[in-house]
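Technical note accompanying the year-one report. For the benefit of new consortium partners, we illustrate the data format agreed upon in the data management plan: each record pairs a sequence with a structure-token string. No post-processing was applied to the example shown here.
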Amino acid sequence: MFKITTITCEDQIIYENGTGHVVVTDAQQPRFGYAVESSLCGSRIREATLEIYEGAAPRCIWSYHGDGQIDLQYHGEALNAYTQYTVVLRVTDEYEESDTACCTFETGRLTDPW
């Protein structure tokens, strides 16, 4: 068994064991991270894809491909204030076992003046 157990945004849990959590961030380039669990001893991540989508008719605004798990910093187009974004994470280990998880995060004021 191989599964994504946690996804974080700015060190706050936005996904945990199948359940999404409401997180609001004012970071213009938020950092993401994740954790996985495997029943196979010594299993290592071969590849991960983290995608950020915006809008009711979702379009991908940023994508990460690699094997990192922490401090995956967003480097896409500028995020909009007061907007919900969808996160889709796909992770595959060296034994070709994989899992996909979806969750959301929201932006706050960002650079909007008080």
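Partners are asked to follow this layout when depositing records. DSSP finds no helices and ten strands in the chain.
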